[in-house]
Amino acid sequence: MGVNLFYLDTSALLKRYKLESGSETMDELFSHSHFPAKRLLTTVFTILEVSSACERLFRVGIISQTSYGKLMKAFSADTDRSIHFLSVDDDIILSASEISQKYFLRTGDAIQLASLVRARESVSGYDIEIVFLASDNALCRSATQEGFTVLNPVEISKNELNQYLS
Question: What is the three-class DSSP state of 3?
């Protein structure tokens, strides 16, 4: 049996920092931080998306400045400890453009899916599967059409997630 890597879209990752449906599942995933290697992946673009989303929550008054600071500190700790970031280069942008046209995805979602496809290519030939976690329905459908196992933290239980963690 191979190893599962977990690619995190921003829509899933934000549930780690803002309490909402699916947060418990994301906390369960991160509680396995004793992984021998960083098994949580995302693109470096996610840093911008998370930062921007959190700033927006503060700006519109959903969270306080104190909460915003704590949230960003927790995200920074996770990025140092648990998440491996994939770079975004010209090939990813060109691939994202094609993916955007193919699936009618927004820019950020197309970059995420292009990065996910690149990650799968990089582990091709190894006994490794990349499981995609996202809560964006259009992105989940597109990733499924690309042949990925897709988990939506809102829809999956901790027990179901644990089947992928072993």
Answer: strand
pLDDT digits (tens, 9 = 90+) for 5-61: 999 999 999 999 999 999 999 999 998 755 556 789 999 999 999 999 999 999 999
Q: Is the pTM higher than 0.70?
A: yes
Residues ≥6 apart with Cβ < 8 Å to 28: 158, 161, 162
C-beta of residue 138 within 8 angstroms of C-beta of residue 109: yes
Neighbours of 89 (CB within 10 A): 11
Closest to 86 (Cα-Cα) out of 48, 123, 43:
43
Distance, CA of 115 to CA of 131 (rounded, Å)? 13
State which fold the 3-165 domain adopts. Answer: Rossmann fold (3.40.50)
| Nearest in space to 120 (alpha carbons), one of 98, 97, 147 | 147
**Residue whose C-alpha is closest to residue 83's, from 38, 44, 123, 47:** 38
